[in-house]
Amino acid sequence: MTVPTPTGTIVSRHITTHARKSFLNYAMSVIKSRALPDVRDGLKPVHRRILYAMYKENNVAEKAYRKSAKSVGIVIGNYHPHGDSAVYDSMVRMSQKWVMNDILVDMHGNNGSVDGDAPAAMRYTEARLSKVAMEMLKDINKDTVDFTKTYDESDIEPAVLPSHYPQILVNGTSGIAVGMATEIPPHNLGEVCRALIALVDNPDMTLDEIMTYIKGPDFPTRGILLGEENIRHAYETGNTGEGRSLRLRSRVDIVEEDGKTFLHVTELPYQVNKDKLLTSLNQLQDDYNAVATQRKNSPNKVFEDKGYDFTYKESGVVDTTGKEDTAQNRVSIFIELKKDKDPIQVLNALYKKTSLEKTIPINFLALVPSAQGNGTVPRVLPLKSILTHYLNHQFDVLQRAYQYDLKKNHAQLKRLLAFVKATDKLDETIRTIRESLSNQDALNKLMPLLDIDEEQAQSILERRFQTLISMNQQKLREEYEEKLEKEKELQKVLDSEELQKQLIKDGFETMINKYGKERMSELGGEVKDIDDESLIPNDEVVVTVTHDMFIKRTKDSEYRTQRRKGIGVNSINMDDDDFVEHLSFTRNHDNILFFTNHGRVYTTKVHRIRTSTTRGYSIRSMFKFKEDETVQAILTIRDFSEKQSLFFTTKNGIVKKSKLSAYKNIHSNGIKAIKLDEDKETGEITDQLVGVSLTGGDSLVTLLTKLGKTITFKEDDVSTIGRTGRGVKGISLREGDSVVSVAVHKGDSELLIVTDKGYGKRTNVSEFRVQSKGGKGVAGISLTEKNGTCVVGFVVVTEEDTIILITKNEGKLMKVAVKEISQFKRNTQGSLIIRLHEGDSLQEIARVSDTEDEENDTEEELLVTNEE
Known about the structure:
Elements (H helix, E strand, L loop, with lengths): L1 E4 L2 E4 L3 H21 L9 H12 L9 E2 H11 L5 H10 L11 E4 L17 E4 L1 H7 L9 E3 L6 E3 L8 H4 L2 E4 L4 E4 L4 H13 L5 H4 L13 E3 L1 H10 L8 E4 L1 E7 L2 E8 L6 H24 L19 E3 L3 H5 L5 E4 L6 H11 L3 E4 L4 E5 L6 E5 L2 H42 L1 H10 L3 H12 L3 H8 L3 H6 L2 H23 L1 H19 L6 E2 L16 E7 L3 E6 L5 E2 L6 E2 L9 E8 L3 E6 L3 E6 L11 E2 L12 E7 L7 E6 L3 E6 L11 E2 L16 E7 L4 E6 L3 E6 L13 E2 L9 E7 L4 E6 L3 E6 L13 E2 L11 E7 L3 E7 L4 E6 L13 E2 L9 E8 L19
Parallel strand pairs: 10-19, 22-42
Antiparallel strand pairs: 1-2, 3-5, 4-5, 6-7, 8-9, 10-11, 11-16, 12-13, 13-15, 14-15, 17-18, 20-21, 20-24, 21-27, 23-42, 25-26, 25-28, 26-31, 29-30, 29-32, 30-35, 33-34, 33-36, 34-39, 37-38, 37-40, 38-43, 41-42, 41-44
Helix pairs in contact: 2-3, 3-4, 7-19, 13-14, 13-16, 13-18, 14-15, 15-16, 18-19
């Protein structure tokens, strides 16, 4: 609605409509006039104005430096009506060789540092255009680009620079507009120019063909670029996309010197502040020391265990960066590691926790010429589109430059022709001029006399008689012929697309020869996420769970291997009525599964189990157990392979086999693992798990009972059933007997059986004949008053193995080499393995392989866990 008034017209508009329109106008102004680069010259308005102002003031590469303050003043006074600090900051950035692959401003004085030091004030520094910047402005006076009026319309400025140097990719840029952001990383000049040359010859090049030239971003500070698989996606779509990333990693060497180990950092990721990096490195050490002190002062208190130790020697971070390093955009930082620290583990932790590694985003957002020819519009561009837009600009600049030269040459040619004709009729020409009453009269008489136009006649009138008389007619004719030949050459280029292509390619070859460099950043393969687990040493550890449901993790190295009849060492401090019920020898990176009396299974990573100097902490704090739920068996595995199965054995002799993959996704509430027998009247569970083993499909299964009976049968005798099934009878038990241990093996080892009084023996498995499942079995050991009242368990071993024994009441743990234990026949008593104090008894046995490289286990090789 409009309302006429004596002073004009009032337009009525809804406030939301007005706000939307005003904000969009503001947003587009920010996008075009501040934040985004033009795809043709790769510059934002402030950078373009700085370069043009310095060029117009003849502050060029071949001239002496001038005060930066003078250039800044000219820019803000004539072209860029913003604060002087913003302009000076932009000028400084264009002069920093650790930011730009090729600097555009050659600055003399303190222009900052990679440490993050601020540059000197503009009154102290001096600057001039660099040689590369001159390539950006070359031919700008030949009408090669359009000019627009300045902000106050008192002058004109270029809308874009000719930019014979591919700034948009080689130096890159970043910027944030309203609802938009651009992130164009720098690239290698040689790679970009060679790709442009190839694209000139073959405009239909595929992205894969382009990427044979442009391998990926290339940064002035070097570094190792990870994520090659994501570079192509970014080049194809214009951005890295969700869930994809590029990582730039510092170059770090591991140095051994005088018995010490150092991490030597020589290259930093792009735009990482070295001073802040050093601060963060020292802060990590301080944080760790603080926690270590707390643990030392409060040994019985459980602190949060992050699971990894990235520590290095105190005061072990030394910056030795020198002038030579700085000149080459390198650094030199030495980090001294503590003894026995794995340098790879520490380095991975530093990559994760500090800016030694950073994410590199790509978003090729730039202003491109509008299809309607009325300015520019923002667009996200694939790599080929960027190259194509830049090439189109170069062809346009070339054609306009040749048209300018042709027009200028043609004007000179016309003047020369006029002088030639004037000298042919010199006397008549001079007489006509002298006799003319006015300048116009002379023009009117000369044109028909010499057969020339008014412009040519005017050029003759502007000459003095003396110069006309002294003109050498022969030289004039020679010069005329030269200009005529030049005009033909210029026109030939304008008429020939092939000649234009060759000139463009020659220009790129010149750029390579003058400014080309070897690639700075190394392509380092795929991105590999550094999670907490990769920072944790995959040490061999012992996990113990007590009867009262306390759990702890202990390094295996804390227990030395003892000879037979040793007394063991303390493994866990327990209350008088508590004892170790489950023990597993494993590694930090393994998964550990907890099977309960409710037939459910829970899981976590071994390294997430905290260490403690006491009996540990309640397992109920890890999982949502029901009130009467207790752990009956534990199993450690590496991967949930489709080719493997879990073999369950219960106290009542029931066995079941299910696919391992069915247990892959276990949530915090656990999942059903097996159906256990229940009392039909009360519903109470009347059976319990004894053991769960990992199988490969072609093994033998041996069950051992409390009274020393064993049965061995083929695994194939037990059919695979679903996760929640019950299973079938594995052994027929006599009254008072129950299964205490189970093992899955290949039939080519020995069985090592131990009793509650610390006696044991190893017997070749060939003495245990293979039977059908469900039988009564045969004697595995002879029980007497001397050697024990019941069997604790058994393991399948070879002579190279080591076993772990743990006592019930005192929690003593002892490692014994298997070869120290004597061999006996099947139905014998065995010999003493561990001396027990009065009132104590043996509780658990597990096998440790000191020579096996578990990191190289195949899916067919089995991890065996034995539980009581």
